[in-house]
Specification:
Layout: H1 3-8, H2 10-20, H3 26-32, H4 36-47, H5 51-63
Helix pairs in contact: 3-4, 4-5
């Protein structure tokens, strides 16, 4: 997976993000809309991570994602 794929299928990944980062609201997820930099900014804001830590965590989340099966 890469961020372009995440962005293109964003709604299918929001549940996984909510499980990983419960402090992210639906409004946050709408704002992020699959954009890595926006996710990193919200992680910094909501969790107090440094930029580097937020980047590491976002990238770690990305590698755990599988292509969703659309129904």
């Amino acid at each position: 997976m890469n961020w372009n794929e995440i962005s293109g299928q964003w709604k299918l990944f929001t549940g996984s993000l909510k499980q990983e980062w419960a402090k992210l609201t639906d409004e946050d997820l709408d704002y992020i809309a699959g954009t890595r930099d926006k996710l990193i900014g919200r992680l910094q804001e909501k969790y107090g991570f440094s930029r580097e830590e937020a980047e590491r965590r976002a990238d770690r989340w990305l590698v755990t994602q599988q292509r969703p099966v659309e129904k």
